Amino acid sequence: MNAKELSTFKELLLAKKETILKSIKNTKEEGKDYTTTEVGDSVDIASNSYEREVLFELSDNERKQLVDIDIALKKIEDKDFGTCEDCGGKISVERLEAVPTATLCINCQTKKDSK
Ligand SMILES: [Zn+2]
Hints:
The chain contains four helices and no strands. By secondary structure, it is mostly helical. Helix 1 packs antiparallel against helix 2 (45-77). The structure holds zinc ion (ZN).
């Protein structure tokens, strides 16, 4: 992968990271709202805690995405981006455009998924 392609993916990943960080911030603020409105409110406690669980799940998933993005960014720094971790082959640019955090080529991913 050439330097221009690498920097394109770097920008893509940084933009993705920023989007997630913003949404985590929003989630946290919403979480805060729940705590404050809960006091003296007639909101059903069960449904309220269910909603809070959903928020936690969301941020866990987002945290995982952030880790994946950081790994991909590190790979760009090391000029190792776009190399399949399994077979050492190249991951297609089309696949990386769709999933910039992909660490496996489509063949290895398919093999892994079918296991
Ligand atoms: Zn592979």
